[in-house]
Design goal:
The complex is a heterotrimer of chains A (170), B (367) and C (156).
Chain A (H helix, E strand, L loop, with lengths): L1 H10 L5 H17 L4 E2 L5 H9 L13 E2 L7 E5 L7 H10 L5 E5 L1 H5 L22 E3 L6 H16 L10
Parallel strand pairs in A: 1-2, 1-3, 3-4, 4-5
Chain B lengths: L8 E5 L11 E7 L2 E8 L7 H5 L8 H5 L6 H16 L5 H30 L3 H21 L8 E2 L2 E2 L7 H23 L3 H7 L7 H6 L5 H4 L7 H4 L20 H24 L19 E8 L4 E8 L7 E5 L1 H12 L3 E2 H10 L4 H5 L1
Antiparallel strand pairs in B: 1-2, 2-3, 3-9, 4-5, 6-7, 7-8
Helix pairs in contact in B: 3-4, 4-5, 4-11, 4-13, 5-6, 6-11
Chain C lengths: L2 H11 L5 E3 L7 E3 L5 H10 L7 E9 L4 E9 L4 E9 L5 E3 L8 H12 L2 E3 L35
Parallel strand pairs in C: 2-5, 6-7
Antiparallel strand pairs in C: 1-2, 3-4, 4-5
Classes of the chains: A alpha/beta (170), B alpha+beta (367), C alpha/beta (156).
Chain lengths: 170, 367, 156
């Protein structure tokens, strides 16, 4: 995306050039939002609901989302399940291996603030947003497949609003 | 030409891998394509459930025990309630016992369908994944009608169950069981005579009877070696002695036997549920226990037959509202301990098939 | 054998080594001293009438006065069940390993060492297991353990 980042700067100078940039932005955002490939990262109970969402009755494939096993081939990481202190460096490493633009969806109560393991537990990481930057939070214990799909639709709306030269700014 | 120099090298099958059931790390020492040694590293899902239970009252521990083994959450609730009822000598009404048995056996069918779906996908077949989850949704609908939740139920409480079933539960349950009975022949027709499946599962991962008993292996993994031992018949709890069912066993103790045995157990579970649905009595569904529940001082270890093996709970109480020590024993802990002995001198693909056929769930290991 | 017959059998044959406790609310509970542990375990496994070859559970406990280690055993062929425990004070926290007799005890003893701090003699593989690799904050399952980020649930 290096050349594309410089495009708005050069197209400003040409009369009528900014229309090219906005149309290109719309096409690229549409293409990205409608075919997000997610990384299979399920640790605990929410992983079973993630598998149910990808199976026959609630089908993830109709939103364009397929699971991939390797972080190099994915652009969304759905963190489903409790993250413990032993697992946290591995999550950071997986996130670093993904190619930009990349998004994070925190699924379930345990990834938001620790869930039912907030009190009295000595080994649970209370929330993942101090390890990796999170885009969408989906609450529930575990969240129903319909809530997860609603979260993915909100993520698609968020992607359609992103800018060409700085994909993280809203 | 001199002799070719070979060396062993170490491969890390890391905590994040598409074919580990949960987060388990295996360090393999390889000699070419053969595995010389397997060493499991665990602890990536250690959530300290036992420490949390020491600061909660007895009814507050039940939602935590749901998360101990979430695929068969009804069995975990039941194991804890049974241990407390044995400690305090509480009588449970008969209607509640019938409802408990129906829910436990439905959960056993759902767990074996999940095993069928994920094991076939690990070995390479993708169609059984969609078939297994499609039938599992029928059972989850029944659970949602009764207690409102799809995965972590909090339904079986100390002294009974938390609410009664609706009138439309019984006809809907019979319809779901008829559909599943019809589809079982489809599942076996896909895989049983398939030459690729037979080449990848027959004779792989053989476990002998002495090894199984010495390492504390229980459940379908023990029955596949030929020993006929099932806690529902040999140490009966609840009202299992009123029903008439068989215990299927295997011959060789390999991956194919473990897979076929679990499909046969689904048939037996359907038989038990049909007998139970025909004979539910009227009556209360719960015994009243006091608000600040204090069992007498003492200790108890009680065990039940989960769909994976033996699940046990040890509770030590000193007469107050909170337990002093709760130790939960899951069967996957012993099965993972026996994996290095069973998987000596095999190829990596065989190791994946053996690991999938043990039906290991990581929160039972790590707690 | 029923439960009463088992109690009579053990009281006649092992009465000087196993002491009956009445805290067991459903199964029989006995107490064994540290020195007799290996001898009693081997005898229970090899006895022709009992054949206790299946170890169900092995765990440590911290009542606020002493440490305990509880063993739960069962027999696959004879359908019997028994529990026994070893009690010792806080400053003598070590015990023999029973993995020669029941190989399943290996991981259970490693976990008891890691969470409670009870030393196991002749184990051979006492390394960190469930806790993170750089853990240096003590033995968490003891009743008097505390840490800066350990939040206790407030009483209502």
């Amino acid at each position: 995306m290096g050349i594309i980042k410089k495009l708005p700067y050069y197209s400003e100078k040409v009369p009528g050039g900014s229309i090219v940039a906005t149309q290109l932005e719309a096409v690229l955002n549409f293409a990205q939002a409608k075919s997000l490939w997610y990384l299979l990262f399920g640790t605990a109970c929410c992983a079973i609901e993630l598998m149910c969402t990808g199976a026959s009755r609630y089908d993830f494939d109709r939103l364009g989302m397929i699971f991939r096993a390797s972080p190099r081939q994915a652009d969304l990481i759905i963190a489903a399940g409790t993250i413990t202190k032993k697992m946290a460096p591995r999550l950071k490493r997986l996130y670093d291996q993904m190619a930009e633009p990349r998004y994070v969806l925190a699924m379930g109560g345990c990834t938001i603030k620790g869930g039912p393991f907030y009190y009295d537990s000595y080994s649970v990481e209370k929330g993942i947003d101090h390890i990796i930057p999170v885009d969408i939070y989906v609450p529930g214990c575990p969240p129903r497949p319909e809530s997860l799909m609603e979260g993915c639709l909100h993520l698609q709306e968020k992607i359609k609003k992103q800018k060409l030269n700085n994909w993280q700014e809203k | 030409m001199g002799k070719l120099r070979t060396e062993e090298f170490i491969v890390n099958m890391g905590p994040h891998h598409p074919s580990t059931h949960g987060v388990c790390r295996l360090m393999l020492t390889m000699d070419g394509e053969r595995v010389v040694n397997v060493e499991p590293y665990i602890g990536y899902l250690h959530r300290a459930i036992e420490k949390i239970c020491e600061n909660r009252t007895y009814p507050q521990c039940i939602p935590l025990m749901d998360r101990f083994e979430y695929v068969t959450a009804m069995s975990c609730d039941y194991a804890f309630s049974l241990a407390v009822e044995k400690l305090a000598q509480i009588e449970v009404p008969e209607r509640a016992e019938y409802l408990r048995v129906i829910m436990l056996e439905l959960n056993r069918i759902a767990s074996h369908l999940l095993f069928y779906a994920t094991t076939a996908m690990d070995i390479g077949a993708v169609t059984p994944f969609l078939y297994g989850f499609r039938e599992r949704e029928l059972i989850i609908d029944l659970f949602e009608m009764t207690c409102g939740q799809r995965l972590t139920y909090n339904y079986i409480r100390i002294g009974g169950v938390s609410r009664d079933i609706l009138p439309e539960f019984v006809p809907k349950c019979r319809e779901a069981l008829n559909i599943i009975k019809g589809k079982l022949s489809d599942y076996q027709g896909l895989l049983n005579e398939n030459p690729i499946w037979k080449a990848r599962t027959k004779g792989i991962g053989v476990m002998s009877q002495e090894l199984a008993v010495a390492y504390g292996v229980s459940g379908p993994n023990l029955r596949a070696t030929g020993i006929k031992f099932d806690l529902r018949k040999d140490d009966p709890y609840s009202i299992y002695d009123h029903f008439d069912f068989d215990i299927p066993i295997g011959q060789n103790g390999d991956v194919f036997d473990r897979y076929l045995l679990r499909l046969r157990e689904i048939e037996q579970a359907i038989k038990i549920i049909e007998q139970a649905l025909d004979g539910i009595p009227e009556g209360e569904y719960k015994t009243k226990i006091p608000f600040r529940f204090k069992p007498p001082a003492g200790e108890v270890y009680s065990r039940i037959e989960n769909s994976r093996g033996e699940m046990g709970l040890y509770i030590l109480s000193d007469g107050s509202t909170k337990p002093v020590r709760v130790k939960a024993r899951g069967s996957s802990y012993n099965h993972l301990q026996v994996l290095p002995e069973v998987a000596k001198d095999c190829l990596i693909a065989d190791l994946v098939a053996t690991f999938a056929s043990f039906d290991i769930i990581m929160p039972e290991v790590d707690r | 054998m029923t439960k009463d017959e088992l109690k009579d059998y053990i009281d006649t044959h092992y009465q000087d080594k196993m002491k009956f406790l009445d805290t067991g609310r459903f199964d029989l509970m006995y107490e064994v001293t540290k020195e007799n542990l290996l001898e009693v375990s081997k005898a229970l496994r090899d006895d022709e009438n009992l054949k206790f070859d299946f170890l169900c559970n092995l765990g440590g406990a911290d009542t606020r006065e002493h440490f305990e280690v509880i063993y739960s055993i069962a027999s696959v062929t004879k359908r019997l069940r028994l529990d026994f425990k070893v009690v010792f004070p806080y400053d003598q926290a070590e015990i023999e390993s029973v993995q020669e007799i029941w190989p399943a005890a290996n991981w259970y003893e490693r976990e008891t060492w890691e969470l409670f701090g009870i030393q196991i003699k002749n184990h051979g593989n006492l390394k960190l297991f469930l806790l993170p690799d750089d853990w240096d904050q003590g033995y968490p399952m003891r009743k008097d353990w505390d840490a800066p980020d350990f939040i206790r649930m407030p009483e209502l």
